Amino acid sequence: MAASLGAQQLTRSGAAHQRQRTCLRPVPRVLVPGRALVQHQLQSACAASKLEDVPLFSDSSSLLGGAPKTSSTSAAAAQKAGPTKVEDVPLNSELGLDYSTLRDYLAAGDVRKADDETRAMLIKMAGTGAVQRGWVYFTEIPSIPAADLQTIDQLWRAASGNRFGYSVQKEMWVQAGKRWPKFFKAINWVQGENNVYLKWPAEFIYTYEAPKGHMPLTNALRGTQLFQAIMEHPAFAKGVGGTAGMSIDERSKLSGKDTLKF
């Protein structure tokens, strides 16, 4: 009996000695966010002599500093895309204009009427002179508030799944090196080897299945100054870092650095 008790005491003493040796070792550096919290839990476990009971991965949110977060790239892309339903687009206007008619045409899938309404609203945005003459000078575009142009753009983007809109056209224009013939071909506004303009309105495609960037239309028969003024409006230069729609060279110039050429 005495020998049995002695053996048990010896076993317990040996286990305690082993735990003491474990706790005397440096606490491992766990290379994850919230490292200090992990080390604290390990030290607490040593004090309790129960290192094997530390739940290293049972509660990842507490050990890793909170719930998983969306990457900044994904968040930026989602912010850029805007609302996914045309009904959810806020009808912001610094000019006090009502864009509900445009929204309703787009929601109903009436692309032809939506395009006509977009031109009508652009004339109203340009001011009294444009309303009286019935068309817009390119010099009137810079004075249009960004909020109004962005509202029209967001309505088109939401209705088309980010395939139509001024900002979509701006991106494609930049991708084409701001070369109008190449850009017009990409959005299917010209045809044939000589890049002849499509006849308005019969030859344009008034559906959401049209090529990307096909809508809305901007008259370029008398030159591209009006279209360029829209593309270069600050409303479509904003984004993450204020460089949305810029080429690599343009972003480099803005940051004061030269782009490496290979």
UniProtKB/TrEMBL annotation:
Protein name: GUN4-like domain-containing protein
Transmembrane segments: none
Region annotated Disordered, chain positions: 1-21, 65-85
Domain GUN4-like: 93-234
Pfam families: GUN4
Bias (Low complexity): 65-84
Xref: PANTHER family: TETRAPYRROLE-BINDING PROTEIN, CHLOROPLASTIC
Gene3D superfamilies, per the entry: 1.25.40.620, Gun4-like (1.10.10.1770)
Positions with biased composition (Polar residues): 1-12
